[in-house]
Amino acid sequence: MRSTRSIEILCLALAALVLVWSKALTAHFWPVIGLLATFAALILGFRARLFLPGRTRVKLLTESWSMVAFVGGVVWFTGKSDSALLNLYLLPIILSALTLGRLNTMLQVAAVAACYVLVAAVSPGHDVLSLGFASRAVGVLAPILLVAYLTSTLAADITDARQRIERLAHHDPLTGLFNQRSFTDLWRREHEARERLRAPYAVLMVDIDHLDRVNEEFGREAGDSALTLVAKCLLRSIRNTDRAARNGGDEFAVLLPGATADMADAVVKRIRNNVYKTTLELRSRMIRCTVSVGIANYPQDAREVRELQSIAEHRMYRDKELRRAPGSTEKA
């Protein structure tokens, strides 16, 4: 929005200066004053948030097309198709390319081309059907089209890069799950919401059994494959409203909003079954992974996030010890 403000003020100032110098203000005083006053009022209205408050994209769309219309009026009063301000169309085009995407930008380029042909058609001495005019139109409009395309491409690349950076900041790069920091933030927000609603939820702590053996026998890439396998199994085992994260190392965490103790137990069974049924092929051997899981239920087990986390971790380690005990039915 700050960039939009600067572009609009620059457009208004440059147009007013040229309108005065070209004597258009003298020849068409009231139309020119009306044009400048209307655009200035629009700028002030948008800056004062009188129009479309809280709807940034709609506001940018309105401002961008308003600027196209304003430049069209300026071109009309300063020589029509021979106007020295034809390149002023680049300002709304660049604004649109940076903020509104390629489709809207190309629509504006098409509108500019149509306006150019229209003002040329009503200007004396121009045959819009001649080869000479076509050549001149290409010379005028091609740079605008090129700037629109390159700027929108650059803006798309910047947006993609920003999204990748944001994803890396919130997600584990190996598994694609939330990282520990983002999961903790989500958990605290969910906990506060559940406290207000007095509604239950559950949190699971999940640990891969014997991952160190896999790393030692098959290498770190095999361990990474096991982590990825378990992450996919977690996602298959939970709802779209649930959240899974990698806590670091071989540990994962799962948040189950609205889940009762029975629902959490059912999710744990699905996780165990999905992990065990999904085999990992390493050096022509089929390896089955298993996981240890601890559950903490709110509000039965505790009412604070730290206490819930501690309980879930304690139960996870207890589960691991039981599965390693002689006579356990653990399958590795």
Q: How would you describe this structure to a colleague?
A:
There is one protein chain. Strand 2 and strand 3 (251-257) form a beta hairpin. It is elongated and about 95 Å long. With 332 residues, the chain is of the alpha+beta class. Helix 1 (2-21) packs antiparallel against helix 3. The two termini are 58 Å apart. Helices cover 65% and strands 11% of the residues. The strands form 2 sheets. A 4-stranded antiparallel beta sheet has the order 2-3-1-6, sandwiched between helices. The chain has a two-stranded antiparallel ribbon with strand order 4-5.
In short:
With 332 residues, the protein is α+β, with helices and mostly antiparallel strands. 65% of the residues lie in helices and 11% in strands.
